[in-house]
Design a protein that fits this description.
two-stranded antiparallel sheet, about 20% helix
């Protein structure tokens, strides 16, 4: 397993930081590939999704969508979350934001109740997003570690990341208001 090290966007010797606004404008003009995301002022190309990743993402999206109220929450898959304080606009696998869909017609959500990343081969890359999500005030950040059959659950967001992290095994369930997920059923093949 290789470790992903995100470049320091303040080191101008090799990185020219990009603002969220510039990133969005370049995307709208078609100058960025479809599978990119902005992390800490740097544009990254995302890895292609494996069939296993796609299957788990589809399963999880259905579970989350069914468990949340359409009047109270917006559930999105692979759509931007604007993390202004971190100079980032990642596209989490699943995002649950409080509000109605119409609230996000002119701008992307800037925080969320829950963000989920599914990691088949991208554990380190996904863990590097934790500070961006925490600075955006995302209440819970989960990384589904498919091969390990674990879910890392991060809570208590702050400027330096999350204050609490626990790993839940397949025998456990995850519960947040209005949502209960059986980890074993999620990663079962």
């Amino acid at each position: 397993m290789s470790t992903v090290i995100l470049p320091d966007p303040h080191n101008t010797d090799y990185v020219h930081p990009l603002s969220i606004e510039a990133y969005q404008a370049l995307g709208e003009m078609g100058h960025l590939g479809k599978n990119t995301e902005l992390l800490y002022g740097v544009v990254f190309t995302k890895k292609p999704k494996s069939p296993l990743h796609a299957s788990i993402a589809t399963r999880l999206f259905k579970i989350v969508r069914k468990a949340t109220s359409e009047e109270s929450y917006v559930v999105r898959s692979e759509q931007p979350l604007t993390c202004t304080k971190a100079g980032s606009e990642p596209e989490p696998d699943i995002l649950v934001a409080r509000g109605a869909e119409a609230e996000f017609w002119s701008s992307h959500p800037t925080t969320a109740e829950l963000v989920i990343e599914i990691a088949v081969t991208t554990e380190d890359y996904d863990r590097n997003k934790a500070i961006a999500y925490a600075r955006a005030g995302v209440k819970e950040f989960w990384i589904v570690l498919v091969n390990e059959k674990l879910v890392e659950v991060r809570t208590i967001p702050g400027e330096q990341g999350y204050g609490k992290m626990e790993s839940l095994a397949v025998a456990q369930c995850i519960s947040i208001p209005e949502l209960r997920i059986d980890v074993a059923a999620l990663v079962a093949r």
